[in-house]
Amino acid sequence: MAVKEVYSFSSADGVTTIHAVKWTPDDGQVKAVLQITHGMVEYIERYEDFATFLTTKGFAVIGHDHIGHGDSSEAEWGLMHTDDPSGVMVEDILSNYKLGKQEFPEVPYFILGHSMGSYMLRKFLCEKASDISGIKGAIIMGTGTEADGTISMGKMVLNTIMAFKGRDHRSQFVAGLMYGSSYKGYDTDGSKDRTKSWLNRDVNKVILSVHICSHLMDTKHYLIQQAMTTRCLTSRR
User: Tens digit of pLDDT for each residue in 60-87?
Assistant: First the structure.
């Protein structure tokens, strides 16, 4: 059995208390560390089975809920009360990285980012290269990019919506545009066929997670993700 510890630290947004979790081997023998950066509309404890498995292989696993997600949400899921959500999230990743390195300074350190977390990790690695050391590997999982024209058009649509509705507006229309046709065959909010959920093939896991993994993000979130799709690829050129 893994030893699970909940901890917290202050977000770079100056308001939020970040909810974080650490799993360690029950014998206390840590051979390596994996830091997980979760995706959009997720929360860190969704990875608990994976983290528990890794502890049987000698890994300590750490991760946290991003602002606007999980138990780091101060008000409503999906709202990030800052004008620089990606910058805040990257700073929070750095804060948790420093905590992990402080506790486990002598073992190999790895970091994994999934989906939105992969974009955040890419930005983190580009912008914080001078602040990090000793990372043995980064796992960029479920990432991607779009053509420049598609990104420019998406940003124009988002900026237009925000001009009329505000940056905290949550739009089903925008969510539909962002998810696109590749998600059409999946149940994305738990209201349809849960055997075809995007969350998990295990319906019991879907039932446990769907209430916290089906909210809409605010519009500015989609804007920063559009921008990061190209920024992280070009910032090191």
Answer: 999 999 998 888 986 676 677 777 888 9
CATH of residue 29's domain is 3.40.50.1820
Residue 31's domain comprises 3-146
pLDDT surpasses 80 at 25: yes
CA distance from start to end of the chain: 45
Quote the radius of gyration of the chain (alpha carbons, Å): 18
Average of per-residue pLDDT across 79-97: 89
| pLDDT tens digit sequence for 29-46 | 999 999 999 988 889 999
Domains contained in the chain, number: 1
Give the tens place of pLDDT for each residue, 129-152.
Answer: 989 988 999 999 988 777 777 777
Q: Is residue 229 part of a domain?
A: no
| Burial (Cβ within 10 Å: 0-12, 13-18, ≥19) of residue 228 | buried
Gap between the Cα atoms of 210 and 146, Å rounded: 28
- Residue 113, in any domain of the structure: yes
Query: Cβ contacts of residue 34 below 8 Å, gap of 6+?
Result: 51, 54, 59, 60, 61, 62, 110, 111, 112
Q: Encoding tokens for residue 156? A: 């124009």
Residue 45 belongs to a domain: yes
Q: Say which DSSP state 168 is in.
A: T
pTM assigned to the model: 0.84
Residue 65 lies in a domain: yes
**Tokens of residue 39, six digits:** 């995706």
Matching residue, tokens 């024209």: 149
Euclidean distance between CA atoms 11 and 19, whole angstroms: 10
